[in-house]
């Protein structure tokens, strides 16, 4: 009986060597986790200093906006009072109403929205298509053409003003919305941004689409574009800000400012031969910052993700 018992295999299998070694490692000192590492006095001091540095930097960047807002509520005679004060002798909320009575400010806002939206839409369409051609399609001379295309970013916009104005005259587009939208909608920055993102998409997705019978256009619209939402959001913000804040080109190519003037040109109208209404100009500047601020806040998550994925975050 005892012989049968000894000859049977043990019910408990021997512990693998890997498990034994792992247990041996666990029996040693336990490495501190993130919570434990942050509980040391030196870690707490570093954390406090980091927060203090962030708050100081935020205060430095926000203070001009705060001063501009309170300056918009001052009387015009106290804008340059010495010593300077943050709050005037009276708070004039009526300055924000007088902005619309001083000139065609609503027309300026409408024109800026129209130009920025149309310019952003054209930029997104052109940049995504060009970025797909440079980043995904294989054709002879692609890299050489892309380098020449990028070289246009080194040319200042001020140098191109006179040639572009002559082109607008040839097309008879001076003092039109086409002249405000199209010349700067074909820039190299958007193409570079989208190309960098498209190059990171696995080619296996396109190969699988081809096997299923999808052509290049269908692959671009149904596979590539849905994956590029974050990068398109980044391009949307940059393009909208560029068109919204453009001053030199609308000033040159526009003749009838009351009908086709944009917000930056309209802000300059508060300075005239009889003097400058600094209070109204500051109030108008605060109003002009609202749309871009709302846009950035609404797309901030996509901005961070898109910049990291498109290669603009330092990778």
Number of helices: 18
Molecular shape:
flat
> What is the distance, rounded to the nearest whole angstrom, between the alpha carbons of the first and last residues?
72 Å
Q: Count the strands?
A: 2
Return the structural class.
mainly alpha
Order of helices and strands: HHHHHHHHHHHHHHHHEEHH
Strand order of the largest sheet: 1-2
In terms of per-residue confidence, which ranges show pLDDT below 50 for 5 or more consecutive residues?
A: 1-37
The Rg value, from CA coordinates, equals 30 Å
| Mean pLDDT over the residues | 81
- The helix content, as a percent range, equals 55-70%
Strand content: under 5%
The biggest beta sheet reads: 2 strands, antiparallel
What does this protein look like?
With 315 residues, the chain is mainly alpha-helical. The chain is 67% helix and 1% strand. A two-stranded antiparallel sheet has the order 1-2. Helix 6 crosses helix 10. It is flat and about 75 Å long. The N terminus is likely disordered.
SSE order and pairing:
Blueprint: H1 2-7, H2 17-26, H3 34-37, H4 41-71, H5 94-102, H6 105-135, H7 142-151, H8 161-170, H9 177-181, H10 188-198, H11 203-211, H12 216-227, H13 229-244, H14 248-253, H15 257-260, H16 263-268, E1 271-272, E2 275-276, H17 278-298, H18 300-309
Antiparallel strand pairs: 1-2
Helix pairs in contact: 4-17, 5-17, 6-10, 6-13, 10-13, 13-18
